[in-house]
Amino acid sequence: MDGSPRFNSLGFAKAPAETRVVVAMSGGVDSSVVAAMLAREGYDVVGVTLQLYDHGAALAKKGACCAGRDIHDARRVAEKMGFAHYVLDYESRFREAVIDEFADQYLAGYTPIPCIRCNQSVKFRDLLATAKELDADCLATGHYVRRVEGSAGAELHRAADAARDQSYFLFATTQEQLDFLRFPLGGHGSKAEVRGMAAELGLAIADKPDSQDICFVPQGRYADVIEKLRPGAAEPGEIVHLDGRTLGAHDGIIHYTIGQRRGLGLGGGETGGEPLFVVKLEPETRRVIVGPRGALAVRRVALREVNWIGPGALKDAPEGGWEAKAKLRSTRPAIEARILPSPEGATVELLSPEEGVAPGQACVFYDGERVLGGGWITRG
Predict the structure, then answer these.
(1) Where are the strands (E) in 188-315, listed by range?
(2) Burial code of 234-267, b = ≥16 C-beta within 10 A, e = fewer?
């Protein structure tokens, strides 16, 4: 024996029983497996489930996280594995930090991603602070990303399974938060493997379907939710071609997103048979601007609220900017780019044009498997 400290599976130089872990439990398979796996390893596990919106409405909603059924499922896992479980009422925080901004951004012509805001504010700010108040050594989640200890501290990396990677949605994680967070599933091969672990642990949720929609948007009907949150705010306007022609009318820009082709409500006679796409939304004039596909291509993207967790500081970029790959949609591959600091945040210069760059979406920077950070798109 060399007398050097032995690190447990979460990276702490003490026994699992002496390591308190708060696990964010949504009631789904992933976070349930994390909590149960850590409990079986002997960690001092405390499960926490967040009630994010009206409990009664939640019970009638299928396929969403943190609803009434999900709270029940999380509690059952805790009871089976013998660890403490708490439900925290974060409804008012969630509405202020996520739902209200979601509605306001859509009305302003943006295409927001509320799941990132939820991670950024409610989970990795408020819940993380609660975990520290509970004297936890770390906060563990079921996200598919990897936390890697680098020479200058913890780094955020893509998941081992590219098909499950959620690093795009965690770009806003700060260095301080990353030091406290743990992601036990990031190194696992597939969702099938994780479901197998759930079955082996005897968890009743092993076959539970994944949530598909944004938790507070039933069936993905964004416009319906915004109309309910901001009655009468969606005003009608014109659909205008880039060349100035008025082609038709719409019932509110909340029904449109950049890059959209289907459902424009334009007949072939008005467009001359030319395929048209939404290229810009103008909330101040209530106009939806459409044009040919080529008009969607951009090479420069402006960002705000940039979070940098790469080497050095963003402002210390070498001449010509930081070389990286930029991912401008969760479903699009990352492409070669240069990242330059700007007074507003950053400017991204793309080495090849990208289509459908929408204000309100995220642009995330990568160096190989490592996440360097990212920001919110203001314009392309």
Answers:
(1) 237-241, 246-250, 277-282, 287-291, 298-308
(2) beebebbbeeeeebbebebbbbbbbbbeeebeee
pLDDT of 202 strictly over 60: yes
Distances (CA, A) of 92 to 89, 235, 362: 8, 28, 25
Q: Is 65 considered catalytic here?
A: no
Check pLDDT > 50 for residue 47. yes
- Give me the catalytic one of 65, 66, 115, 118: 118
pLDDT in tens, 156-179: 999 999 999 999 999 999 999 999
* Full-model pTM: 0.90
Task: List the alpha helices (DSSP H) in the chain.
Answer: 29-40, 55-59, 68-81, 91-94, 100-107, 114-117, 128-133, 175-180, 191-200, 222-229, 268-271
CA distance 283 to 109: 6
Burial class (CB in 10 A: 0-12, 13-18, 19+), 340: middle
Catalytic-labelled residue, pool 66, 115, 138, 215: 215
CA 302, 306, 309, 314 dihedral sign is: positive
Q: What are the C-alpha distances in Å from 156 to residues 96, 264, 270, 296, 341?
A: 28, 40, 49, 31, 21
Confidence of residue 56 (pLDDT cuts 50, 70, 90): very low
Give the residue from 94, 218, 119, 216 showing the smallest Cα distance to 177: 119
Q: Is 215 a catalytic residue?
A: yes
Q: Which is nearest to 85 in space by CA: 121, 122, 123, 51?
A: 51
